[in-house]
Amino acid sequence: MDSDANTFIVLGATGGIGTELCRRLARDGANPVLAARDEGRLEDLAGEIDAPYHAVDATDGGAVDGLFSRAKEEHGAIIGAVNCVGSFLLKPAHMTSEDEFARQISLNLTTAFNTVKAAARHMPDGGSVVLLSSVAARVGLANHEAVAAAKAGVAGLALSAATSYVSRGLRFNVVAPGLVQTPMTENVTRSETARKASLDLHPLGRLGEPEDIAAAIAYLLGPESGWVTGQTIGVDGGLSTLRPPTRRQAKA
C-alpha cells in the first residue's frame, strides 16, 4: 500500500469478514478507519490493530456521510471503502414478516446505498468501493427470498454506480460469498444436519472462512484491480457456477 494515500473506510468492521479485512489491511500497511455500531467491540479491534474508529449506524445515511467527512478531514484522501454490514435470514417468503423483510433491506441494501452515496460525495479523485452481496442472489436457494432480494439489489446498485462515476475513476465492485463461517451464520453452521447439507452444496467441499472473502476484497481495493469495475465476483466454493460430479463420475 502507498503510505501517503492509504485510508480505507470499513463499515461493519466488527463482523467476521470485516474484522479479518481490517487485520489484513493493517498488516499490509494501510490505514483502515473502522466503523460499526458496537463501540466496545470497535474499541477492542482498534486497539488490536492500532486503527482509528467511529461508532456509526450504517442504516443512517447522514451518519455514514459524516463518517466519510470526518475520515477525510482527519486522515486525508479516502482511496477505498467497503460495506461489510449485513444480516442473514433463512425463511421462506410466506413465513417472513414485514418487519423481518424491512430489516433485511435496511441492513443489506440501505447500508450499501449509503456507502455508495457517501463515496460519491467524498471520493472525488476516484478510488475503489466494494460491496457485499451473496451467492443467494446468483443462484436459487430455498428459504432465502428476503436476503436474496436485498443482495440482488446490491449487485444492481454497484452496476449503476460504476457507470455513473466511471469518468472520475471511482470503481464499484461486489463480492458474493457462499456460506462463510462467521458469528452471523452460527445458526446454520452449528447444526450438524444443516452444516452437512451446506457442505454438499459447495463443490470445493468446505465452507468459506472470513480470510477467503477478505482476500477478494483486498484485491478489489488494491491497484492490481485497477481495470476492474462493475463486477460481481463469486467467492463461494463453486456453488454459483459448478455442479459436483455424481458418484459415478467421481469414480471414473
What would your notes on this structure say?
With 252 residues, the chain is of the alpha/beta class. The protein has a single domain (7-251), classed as 3-Layer(aba) Sandwich (Rossmann fold). It contains nine helices and seven strands. Strands 3-2-1-4-5-6-7 form a seven-stranded parallel beta sheet, sandwiched between helices. Strand 4, helix 4 (98-122) and strand 5 form a beta-alpha-beta unit. Helix 1 (16-27) crosses helix 8 (210-221), helix 3 (61-75) packs parallel to helix 4 and helix 4 packs parallel to helix 5 (145-164). The chain starts with 6 loop residues before the first strand and ends with a helix.
Beta-strand percentage?
Answer: 15-25%
Q: How much helix, percentage-wise, in residues? A: 40-55%
The total beta strand count reads: 7
The residue-averaged pLDDT reads 93
Runs with pLDDT <50, length 5+?
Answer: none
What's the architecture, going by CATH? 3-Layer(aba) Sandwich
The main pleated sheet reads as: 7 strands, parallel
Can you tell me the CATH class?
Answer: Alpha Beta
What is the string of SSEs from the N terminus onward? EHEHEHEHEHEHHHEH
Contiguous helical run count: 9
Shape: globular
